[in-house]
Design goal:
This protein has eleven helices and ten strands. It has 289 residues and is of the alpha/beta class.
Length: 289
């Protein structure tokens, strides 16, 4: 039996569930399940979103099944205490930026509990079509998003994601600054006849104050209306852009990865976070600036 722990914001949930799909593909005759119990008392982001957005019906592990591969999980706070203070069991494995990528974690034949975010396309790149089909967004229910989506598809558009909010409070995270976005925008403009920039952020005011002069004569749109449980629509809109400038965020990572425009360029920050890491999420064919 293999169980994947699902936790975090939407982008990280998508990484974890993509690992689950890879495990199902590699072990068709084995029981593969997920654990979502850590969302009890989690309190961050919008809770479990996979089912609501992508109509994913997770195969939830029972408490007795969990105990075979990991300590019993009842809620987020208890799990955080357990993973830091109780001894590591042989069946417990973790996908973090501090551990080198190892596809053997997918093909291993023993029972295992997969904790962490598993932010590397190498775990599921070979089943890309299945992942794309799984993460198929629902149709827009409002005219504003529908019209913008059409414009992004018809134009040489670039999505620009700026994440500030929670990153300003977390000491380990770098906040991509104006210099990064200036270099990224100039790079894309030098490589293609871009005619539309679309900005997504949790701090639109900062974007207006710092990006307007960089964009020059190119039309720019600041998307500020997808809030709360509808915030995933920003990711959906990113997928329609021809090119993507992402932040060091799993949210815009997926906005870029799910895009299928021909000739696509993805610009990503060279430094993902402040602490040294051995396994960052940037794909080999993306451009680091």
């Amino acid at each position: 039996m293999k169980i994947v722990n699902i936790i975090g914001g939407l982008g990280n949930q998508m990484f974890e569930y993509a690992l689950y799909l890879a495990l199902k593909d590699a072990h068709p005759d084995e029981v593969i399940k997920v654990c979502t119990r850590s969302f009890n008392g989690y309190g961050l982001h919008n809770g479990l979103e996979l089912d609501r957005i992508f109509n994913v019906r997770v195969n939830e592990a029972s408490l007795s099944e969990l105990c075979k591969v990991v300590y019993p999980i009842f809620n987020y706070k208890m799990w955080q205490v357990m993973i830091h203070y109780l001894p590591q069991r042989k069946s417990m494995t973790s996908g973090t930026t501090q551990i080198p990528f190892d596809f053997g974690e997918v093909t291993r034949n023993d029972s295992a509990f997969y904790d962490g975010y598993w932010q590397n396309e190498g775990f599921f790149k070979h089943i890309r079509e299945q992942v794309l089909n799984t993460y198929s967004f629902p149709i827009f229910k409002d005219v504003k998003n529908e019209q913008l989506a059409g414009k992004l598809i018809r134009s040489n558009s670039v999505s620009i994601h700026i994440r500030r909010g929670d990153y300003l409070k977390e000491p380990i995270w770098c906040v991509c600054d104006q210099d990064y976005y200036e270099r990224s925008i100039k790079y894309v403009l030098s490589k293609d006849n871009v005619n539309f920039l679309c900005v997504f952020s949790d701090d639109i005011q900062w974007c207006k104050e710092n990006l307007q002069s960089i964009s020059g004569d190119v039309e720019i749109e600041y998307v500020d209306w997808n809030k709360g449980y509808e915030s995933y629509r920003d990711m959906q809109l990113m997928t329609y852009c021809k090119h993507n400038i992402i932040a060091n965020s799993s949210f815009s990572w997926w906005g870029a990865w799910l895009g299928q425009r021909e000739g696509k360029m993805v610009i990503a920050p060279k430094v993902w976070c402040k602490k040294p890491i051995v396994n960052d999420p940037i794909c080999d064919n993306w451009i680091r600036l």
